[in-house]
């Protein structure tokens, strides 16, 4: 387990960039993400280093799935990130897809800030994919190298990625006849 405190863990770039760039499979869920980040010193805007890291991983052959929150106050920025990543992957025939949370499922807000890398490492974090989370805010992230933990978060990601749209069916097994006083 590695504890990563922002902004200390990100002196040159967000600590998460190297994790993303070195991954062959990425499953990410994110509450807020910005496509463009303002430079700390010049104020100039450029593509988010996290998005650039995801693009680098995709070009290197990684498969990436990113689910973003879609409540009204995140919709514009998160849509921009999803559209950018989807366009980048489609133009190059890469295995990457970004989606907004389907609000018809049981989850109404995707407040998670997490990532599973190669089904071996799991990030649970308070960092949104916005510049202030890595450069200005006191944030806390835990990166755990555990296939068991990654398996749990992968299953949770898959439930969020494809929400269950069918009502459950109750099935208690075959009908039984039991006489009074008999165990059942």
**In oligomeric terms, what are we looking at?**
single chain
Which runs of at least 5 residues are low in confidence (pLDDT < 50)? none
Structural class: alpha+beta
- Mean model confidence by pLDDT: 93
- Main sheet strand line-up: 1-9-8-7-2-5-6
Give the distance, in angstroms, between the N- and C-terminal Cα atoms: 48 Å
- List how many beta strands DSSP finds: 9
Question: What is the element string, with H for helices and E for strands?
Answer: EHEEEHEHEEEHEH
Share in helix: 25-40%
User: Rounded to an integer, what's the Rg over CA atoms?
Assistant: 20 Å
Using the alpha-carbon principal axes, give the shape.
elongated
Number of helices: 5
Largest sheet: 7 strands, mixed
Strand portion, in percent? Answer: 15-25%
Would you write up a description of this structure?
This protein has about 180 residues and is of the alpha+beta class. About 30% of the residues lie in helices and about 25% in strands. It has 5 helices and 9 strands. The chain has helices at about 15-20, 50-60, 70-90, 130-135, 145-160; strands at about 1-5, 25-30, 35-40, 45, 65-70, 95-100, 115, 120-125, 140-145. The strands form 2 sheets. A 7-stranded mixed β-sheet has the order 1-9-8-7-2-5-6, sandwiched between helices. Strands 3-4 form a two-stranded antiparallel sheet. Helix 2 runs parallel beside helix 3 (about 70-90). The mean pLDDT is about 95.
